[in-house]
Amino acid sequence: MTGRPYVLLSCAMSIDGYIDDASAERLLLSNADDLDRIDAVRAGCDAILVGAGTVRRDDPRLLVRSDRRRAERVARGLPPSPVKVTVTASGDLDPAARFFTMGEATKLVYCPSGALEKTRERLGAVATVVDAGEPASPAALLADLAARGVSRLMVEGGGIVHAQFLGDGLADELHLVVAPFFVGDGRAPRFVGDGRFPWHPGRRARVLEVRQIDDVVLTRYALSDRCPEA
Ligand SMILES: NC(=O)c1ccc[n+]([C@@H]2O[C@H](COP(=O)([O-])OP(=O)(O)OC[C@H]3O[C@@H](n4cnc5c(N)ncnc54)[C@H](OP(=O)(O)O)[C@@H]3O)[C@@H](O)[C@H]2O)c1
Which of 51, 110, 138, 163 is the most exposed place for a label (fewest CB within 10 A)? Predict the structure, then answer.
């Protein structure tokens, strides 16, 4: 396979742009119908990436939930759920996290060269730990995923990871869901923080679709020429 995987970013935020609140509880932004839509998008990807911050904070399973979609993947010769991918510099991830313990999917942990040894010691029994350069870069991660046969990657957050893919010009499509409430707490994380992004007032991204899903609104943006609908 040549070229990097197609990269689809997925995020849900409040009306005021927060992707979580500042409490210890996980904040639900999507609704049941939207979670089902996300499940369908997951089922259409080869790999799903979340940052280590999201693994620690949300403890996500990152599996295809629908029996039918899992069966369809298997019928196509694929594993029931996509490969799970995370990235960490600290290596500070719990091997008992659901990312590692749930599902049969391959689990990949990318880290900077300098953290490879300690991360392999901690997580080598539950995941394949991969050197992503010094510092670890999204481009290196994508090159390695391509070499492993991944052609479509879904990036599910959090904000630090999304900002890197956007800032490095490595995102092809964005699915942004807005939930119908405010968080109103500056301590909470936003979709992305400060940065230089390829899309700005002088270069506006193209809207592919706006769809109401029960009480949330999904907007799909094309972020590169690789997006088939762009
Ligand atoms: N609403 C949504 O759609 C949504 C989706 C996902 C997450 N979230 C929320 O987002 C928040 C977490 O987001 P976050 O921005 O704090 O964290 P994040 O993006 O999930 O993960 C950031 C961490 O990933 C690792 N990392 C990222 N880029 C790296 C690189 N190039 N090299 C090495 N390591 C790298 C680092 O881990 P180490 O610290 O281990 O070095 C970094 O601290 C949570 O509140 C979660 O609930 C919301």
Answer: 163
Confidence of residue 21 (pLDDT cuts 50, 70, 90): very high
In contact, 170 and 142? CB cutoff 8 Å = yes
The enclosing H or E element of 107 equals strand 107-111
C-alpha of residue 68 to centroid of ligand 1, in Å = 30
Q: What is the pLDDT of residues 61-84, one digit of tens each?
A: 999 999 999 999 999 999 999 999
Cα–Cα distance between 65 and 184 in angstroms, integer? 32
Average pLDDT, the chain: 96
Q: Which of 8, 19, 94 most suits a substitution to test ligand 1, by most atoms within 8 Å of the C-beta? A: 19
Q: Which amino acid is residue 207, in one-letter code?
A: V
Single out the residue of 143, 202, 201, 131 nearest to residue 168, CA to CA. Answer: 143
Q: Which amino acid does the sequence have at 16?
A: D
Rounded Cα distance, 169 and 89, in Å: 21
pTM score over 0.85: yes
